[in-house]
Amino acid sequence: MTGIADQAWFRDPALGRILAFLNADDGAEGGEARVVGGAVRNSLMGLPVSDIDIATTLTPEIVIERAAAAGIKAVPTGLQHGTVTLVIDGKPFEVTTLRTDVETDGRHAKVAFSTDWKADAERRDLTINALYADAKGEVVDLIGGLADIERRNIRFIGDAATRIAEDHLRILRFFRFFAYYGSGRPDAEGLKACAAARSKLKTLSAERVWSELRKLLSADDPGRALLWMRQVAVLTEILPETEKWGIDAIPSLVATEKALGWTPDPLLRLAAIVPPDAVRLEALAARLRLSNAEAATLKNWAMAAPVNDEISSAAFERLLYRNGADGITTRLKLALGVARGKAEGDLGEMARSARLGKLLDQAMTWKKPQFPVNGADVIAVGIPSGPRVGELLGSLENQWVEENFASDRAALLARLQERVQ
Q1: Is residue 67, in this structure, part of any structural domain at all?
Q2: What is the mean pLDDT of residues 163-183?
Q3: What is the pLDDT of residues 235-252, one digit of tens each?
Q4: Phi/psi at 183 (nearest 5 deg)?
Q5: 95 neighbors 63 (Cβ within 8 angstroms)
Q6: How far apart are CA 203 and CA 252, in angstroms?
Q7: 78 and 19: one domain?
Q8: In a domain, 61, yes or no
Q9: Interatomic CA distance for residues 178 and 222, integer angstroms
Q10: Do the Cβ atoms of 301 and 276 come closer than 8 Å?
């Protein structure tokens, strides 16, 4: 029998305490608890485990009672869905009562508590997410998930169209899990069902759509998932900006990230598949309800000045000062990804890659010089408060920049004095 008892996270004394009191058979209500979902899946696939979720036949009220008796803090984080969060030494464990769906509308479900493990498994989305591990660490597979883990096959449980009808977000989850765990071609039935239901994505909240898309774009290599999303028009449904732009830049960008040790950045990957059009990107940010910081990142990139890779270091310093480093850094990373993708066997692109890499290093370590003079200094030499102060200050700063920030405060004040005499 397949087991995970040797996993370090499973031997955690905190988890052991929880499984012990939830599986205690000395209470009148009995009950059983098993670890479920991602922790089991990742262990079987040799991947790191973060969150540990527990499923139980006990009702939330009994879970809370037993936790209190064991001296463990219980937080009722989602009682209507049967979820209680148990906290030991600051570490949370979500415990959820087995459920069956009474009614769903594609976004929300009304559930009834259950003691039927197979029914609980069958209401979940994907086979690889519906594996349990009992208190001994033995894996319980009720829907064929182990075989799919072995093949790295991402497959809906039962009828794909039915699973999607229960929650339309599962369309995006199908591709997100394929990006992280899948191999080869996505499950044909799943692809067909996602394509048929893609218009239902419009019924989801923008926050849910962007949350899933951001997670997908954070995968080590989201390229294959994006390709299949485009093939079945799911990508166009949520990102119409990509329709005439494409995703061709992703493979070389991902290869560049890996070669240079960049942490996967979902916004950089997003920028690689949408046009640098500030107006359209503002609409995209509003539609998906990106955070202010995320929207600003895209806007800075779209508004950033183009960079000639043969620009001198001094001229690049001036460009950074006048335009800021954030948007230019994004432009350089994308350009470097494209150049490296073309570099094999092309000496010109190899040289261009080297120049772009050098400029990127300069941009990422650049610190904006502080202009040593301010409006108060202009007024102090006798210029009345008003537009003339700004004009003089701007002219002085522009000359300072053109001289590559060489003049110190004393020299600038002397130059200012000369201008007002």
Answers
A1: yes
A2: 97
A3: 999 999 998 888 999 999
A4: -145, 150
A5: yes
A6: 34
A7: yes
A8: yes
A9: 9
A10: yes
pLDDT of residue 134: 95
Asked if 178 and 212 touch (Cβ cutoff 8 Å), the reply is no
Position 190, amino acid: G
Q: Which domain holds residue 401?
A: 375-420
Output the DSSP codes for 81-137.
GTEEEEEETTEEEEEEE-EEEEEE-BS-EEEEE---HHHHHHTSSBGGG-EEE-TTS
Q: In this structure, what token pair is assigned to residue 140?
A: 């319980």
The domain boundary residue, chosen from 121, 151, 181: 151
For residue 125, give the CATH number of its domain. 3.30.460.10
pTM recorded for the entire structure: 0.88
The share of the chain scoring above pLDDT 70, in percent, equals: 96
Q: What is the pLDDT of residue 79?
A: 83
Indicate if 317 and 398 belong to the same structural domain.
no
In a shared domain, residues 323 and 394: no
HSE-up of residue 89 (Cα within 13 Å, Cβ side): 6
From CA 314, how far away is CA 164, in angstroms rounded? Answer: 56
Tell me the per-residue pLDDT of 2-33, one tens digit each, with 9 for 90 and over: 789 999 999 999 999 999 999 987 545 668 99
Structure tokens at 127: 């086979």
Determine, yes or no, domain membership for 294.
Answer: no
Interval 54-64 mean pLDDT: 95
Chain-centre distance for alpha carbon 191: 23
Does some domain include residue 209? no
106 strand-pairing partners: 167
Distance (Å, rounded) from C-alpha 327 to C-alpha 260?
20
Residue 318's pLDDT is what?
A: 95
Domain boundary among 96, 131, 151: 151
Question: In this predicted model, what pLDDT tens digit does every residue of 323-349 receive, in sequence order?
Answer: 999 999 999 999 999 999 998 888 989
DSSP single-letter state for residue 2:
-
Mean pLDDT of all residues belonging to the chain = 93
Say if CB 156 and CB 204 are below 8 A apart: no
Q: Judge if 320 and 412 occupy the same domain.
A: no
Number of folded domains in the chain?
3
